[in-house]
Amino acid sequence: MAVICDNCSGKLFFNPATQKLECVSCGSSFRPEDVCDKDAELHSRYYSTRVYSCRHCGAEVITSDTEASTFCVYCGNPAIVFNRISREYKPDGILPFKITKEEAVKKICENFLNNPFVPSEVKKKAVPANLRGIYIPYWIVNADYTEADIISGEIRRNKRTYTELYSRAGKVRFKNIPVDGSKILTDDLSCKLEPYFLEDCKVFDEDYLNGFYSNTSDLSLEELKSSSIHRCHKLFGDEVMKTVKAANLKFLESRSWIDIHDDPLYMMLPAWFFTFIHKGKPYTVLVNGQTGKVVGTMPWDNRRVVLLSLCILTLVLGLTGVLFWCVGKTMSVNRDSFSPFLIAVPLLLGSACFAKGRGGLSRIMRNLKLTQSRDIFRFVKKRQE
Amino acid sequence: MDQIATIFMVFGGMWIISGIGITVFIMYKILDKYINYGDSSGDIHEFAVGDIDYIRYIDEVSQHERTLFNDNFSIDPYEDIKRSVPEPLKKEHEM
């Protein structure tokens, strides 16, 4: 439904800063709930949208009648074509944007400014024209959840390392878990956008969509169950791991079941998508449209990272070299001062730092792959199979 | 003399290993701060009503207990519960 101004018949757009619909022609502003829908009865369960398809990644982008899409919000590709006018099922509620486009750009730029690793050509792309506001469909789920796990972990006993098995099973009731209802976004990426504070939710009114894109839920009940289990397993698993006093914990076996209670809420939650292409690879950085939290992993300038690594390595080797030289020299003069402790401490420290650093770097690389939309597309395909 | 060379070789090896380990850790911390944004997800207490109600809590699991695990946890405890399906979650053939 195109919403027009009562005063001049101009198009109305939702402004997050004022939380009102504003006319681009005469500047009048209206509260969304005051703009009357003349076909309220007809529109009570459905609303009209324009659906665009991206020829590059296959994503569908939905806009209100007043907005035209110029590029894909998921992969940044301009190969986007109008597909159809669609009537979509009305969500139960909507969390209106609170962060304006300019504020979202500012949030992203806060991370760029004085950041020596982000390439300068990427910094130049953080402009309002490259940001699109999109309402992501979410299901707010109440559920009973049961999980049973066998966990393996390593313990030290009598100076030897043993692998032990631990068994944990339990049930828990979850309330108001947000589960991403769109296949194009991976659950791992969308859950990083949280928290969303649902107290600010409004009853759904399509007027809030004006000036923004939206996506609709494309999950079946089974797919919602699968996404909910994935989300609950992460929460349950992290908690269970805390009860096991061992190192290098791994799930050997894990079984989980869920009972989603009746009437999960279908909601639209806001996010800003900053999409750009760098060295032929697409990147998507997200900004929570309510809190301004920035989510994503930026490309880095390889030359600067390698240079910094070499500088740090030289500095660390220099400092530890002086230390080892002194200890080694003392021991070569006075052999009685040799202690296995002197060997064990730096070795353990170095190994622990290496293990922690390697794990952290792998996590950053995984996040980088999530940020690159082609991987998102592959995830989507995987989930669709 | 050989012993002195051995001591210096051992310390040289440790020096390189710890140096690389510490450098990798520092680089991870730097990249995590400057490149990786918003890498956090929720805690169970944000969404759970109460704590986990454990029905099995065993340390040092034996092979027999592992077999029991497979027997005890093979059936969906919620399979008999029937729920209504919201309209947007219905596939076309269900509508």
Describe the 3D structure.
The complex is a heterodimer of chains A (385) and B (95). With 385 residues, chain A is of the alpha+beta class. Helices cover 30% and strands 33% of the residues of chain A. The relative contact order of chain A is 0.15. Chain B has 3 helices and 2 strands; from the N terminus they run αβαβα. The mean pLDDT of chain B is 82. Chains A and B meet through strand 8, strand 9, helix 4, strand 12 and strand 15 of A and helix 1, strand 1, helix 2, strand 2 and helix 3 of B. Strand 15 of chain A pairs antiparallel with strand 1 of chain B, so a sheet runs across the interface.
Notable traits:
heterodimer, A: 385 residues, alpha+beta, 3 domains, twelve-stranded mixed sheet, three-stranded antiparallel sheet, 7 helices, 15 strands, 30% helix, 33% strand, disordered C terminus, B: 95 residues, elongated
